[in-house]
Specification:
157 residues; OB fold (Dihydrolipoamide Acetyltransferase, E2P); five-stranded mixed barrel; two-stranded antiparallel ribbon; extended
């Protein structure tokens, strides 16, 4: 048999998908392209929990700052609803931008082009001001769940 014919070729599907949960590091900036499309830019700080080998305590690792770009109607909603410090869930794809700086050096930047932005904090407009809603409702829901778990311990089976 000819070895060329028995050789199998595998095609591994490539995906460019990113999912991040973090906090907005500064108020989003909204601008328009020459054709009038809305573009919103902001950075998100993401971190992970690590266990300190010396103390055995859990702590946040150093944050990574990820630039996010959002387009069209979603860009306008991000400008309206996001503020510095707000938690956000981003889904999108990575894109690399390369350019030549005025000093002649080559520059590049890796950013996330968001396809979905989920706001994890609610803001209310009261008396013309934007205020962050407290997470009291979340805490009360957690208390209810804990009390339900306690009641399960009383079941005899």
């Amino acid at each position: 048999m000819d070895q060329e014919k028995t050789k199998l070729t595998y095609r591994i599907p490539e995906q460019n998908k990113v999912c991040l949960v973090g906090r907005v590091t500064k108020d989003p900036e909204l601008r328009r392209t020459g054709t009038g499309k809305a573009v919103c830019s902001f950075d998100v700080a993401v971190s992970r929990r690590i266990k300190d080998t010396v103390t055995g305590q859990w702590r946040d690792a150093d944050p990574t700052f990820v630039p996010i770009v959002v387009w069209n109607d979603q860009a306008e909603r991000c400008k309206e609803r996001l503020l510095k410090g707000f938690p956000v869930h981003i889904e999108g794809r990575l894109q690399s931008n390369n350019w030549k700086a005025p000093d002649g050096t080559n520059r590049s930047r890796l950013e996330v082009i968001a396809s979905r932005v989920q706001f994890l904090s609610v803001i209310k407009k009261e008396f013309g001001e934007i205020a962050k809603e407290t997470d009291d409702t979340t805490e009360s829901k957690q208390e209810v769940v804990e009390t339900e778990e306690d009641s399960y311990e009383e079941i005899p089976f």
